[in-house]
C-alpha cells in the first residue's frame, strides 16, 4: 500500500486515475460514459481526468501492427558505441528501426529492427554496425516470439529498401520520398506484407496515418487515400479482425521520466519452463523469446530502480532455471514507446507478488506454515 501511495504522490494521481488507466489498457475502446459508470464518476469528470493523464504521458494511445503473430522478422541488436548519440542519429531515418535506446552496461546501444526479410536485417547490422570501427560487441538476436501482446508502429517503406543495398541507394529513396512529400511510397513489386496479411497499399497507408496521429478521423484518412469514410472504417475493422492493426494504450516511457525501464537478458537452462511464468508476471511489461545464449529478454518497469532490482532478485534470479542474467537500464529513447503498465499490482517487501505461483512458493519456504490465502487476506485488510 505504501508503494502505491508513493507512486501516486510522484505522478500526482489517485486511485480513480489508476482505475481509469487500467480499464483503458484492458479495453482501449471504452467510452468516457462506460468508464464513468464503472468508477461512479460523471462523464465530464472522467474526460477531464483522461486529458490530464494524456498530458502527462501516462495515458497514451498507440496504433501499430500486432507483432505477436510473428509474420515479421524481428531482431534485437546490442552494441557498444564510442558515440551512442551519433549511432541513434544515423539510424533515425531507417524504416527498419522500430525504436532504439541508449542503455547502461557493457553494451550501451539497443536497436529493435523489423522487416519482412531476415537477410535484409542482417545486411543492415553488417553495414551499419559491425563494419564501423567505433562500434564493438555487436550481437544480433532473432525474436522467435513475443511473450505477450505487443503493438508497435511500423514504417512500411522498408519494403522499397528490401532490394536496395544500404548506403547511397537507400538514401536516394529516402530523399525522393521526402522531396515528393509522400508519407508512403508503395513497393513496385510483389509485397511480402500484402501476401502474408492479405492487405493492400491503402491498408498500409491507413495504418501509417493512425500511427502518426491516433486522433485522425476516418473522414480525414479517406480524403488522403481517395476513399469514403465508411470504406475506411470497414478497412480498419477488417485489419483489426485479422490481427494486423492493433491499438494499445499505456504509458509513454519516453515522456514519463518518473518511470524507469530495465532490460533483463536471461540465459536459461530451460527457457520453456519459465516462459509461461514470465507471461503472467505483472511486473514484466513486455519481452521476447529469442535465439542466442540469452534466450529470453524481458522488460521490467517501475518508479524505483531499487524496487526493480528487488523484483529481478526475487522473481528472476531466484528461478532454478535461470543460469545467468544481464541487466541494462534504458537511459534514452529514440522514439515514443507506449507500453501497458500494471497500476494494480504491488511488490511486497521481501515477499514478491502473491498472485504469482513462483512467489507464493518462495513465500511458503520463507514462512513455513503460513498459507498464501491468509497472507493475502492480511494484505487486503491492511489496504482497507
SSE inventory with pairings:
Layout: H1 2-11, H2 15-26, H3 32-39, H4 43-56, E1 60-66, E2 73-81, H5 84-91, E3 97-103, E4 109-115, H6 118-130, E5 135-146, E6 151-152, H7 158-161, H8 168-180, H9 192-197, H10 201-212, H11 218-225, H12 229-241, E7 245-252, E8 260-268, H13 271-280, E9 284-290, E10 296-302, H14 305-317, E11 322-333, E12 338-339, H15 357-366, H16 372-383
Antiparallel strand pairs: 1-6, 1-7, 2-4, 2-5, 3-4, 3-11, 5-9, 7-12, 8-10, 8-11, 9-10
Unreliable stretches (pLDDT < 50, length at least 5) are: 367-384
CATH architecture of the domain at 66-249: 2-Layer Sandwich
Q: What is the class of the domain at 66-249 in the CATH system?
A: Alpha Beta
Mean pLDDT reading: 87
Terminal CA distance: 9 Å
Could you tell me the strand content as a percent range? 15-25%
Instruction: List the helices and strands in order.
Output: HHHHEEHEEHEEHHHHHHEEHEEHEEHH
User: Which structural class matches the secondary elements?
Assistant: alpha+beta
What is the radius of gyration? 22 Å
Under CATH, the topology of the domain at 66-249 is which?
A: Alpha-Beta Plaits
Helix content: 40-55%
Largest sheet: 8 strands, antiparallel, barrel
Across the major sheet, the strand order is 2-4-3-11-8-10-9-5
CATH superfamily of the domain at 66-249: Lrp/AsnC effector binding domain/regulation of amino acid metabolism (RAM) domain
> What's the overall geometry?
globular
Give me the count of strands.
12
Tally of individual helices: 16
